[in-house]
Amino acid sequence: SGADLTGAYMGEADLHGANLIKAHLQAANCNGANFQRAFLQRATLSSADLSRVRLHGANLSGADLSGADLSKAVLVGANASNAIFRSADLRMTDLPGANLQGALLIGVVFTKTVFRGADLSRVQATPDEFRGITAADLAGVTIDPPTLERLGLRDSATARQSRG
Length: 164
Known about the structure:
By secondary structure, the protein is low in regular secondary structure.
């Protein structure tokens, strides 16, 4: 697609299944929009308002979500592998079953974020992003041993360890 929607207002829009591959959505207001099963690979969503968006099953692989507000967003089963979430707001975000393999999570805010069943293998983050995250928060999460160690989560017995 490569569409340029920079700064666009798409609040509550229904973009279910939309092809937004490589689209430019910087600073777009998508509050409450429906992006279920949307194709957002390598899209630029930096500084976008994605609060309360529905991204069930969406493909965000390689997308740039730097500085985006994803508070209260739902990413159930979404593919956000290798996505860039630098300084994004993921407060109260639902990530059950989401694939975050290799995602960049530096500076992300994870307050009351639901990780259940997410894949955090090879994420790029520091212990600071995961400070305050408990073993219960990581129940059923898949994470590779080197990442578990690097994030200071080695004692989180409930996280499944992937081989990688």
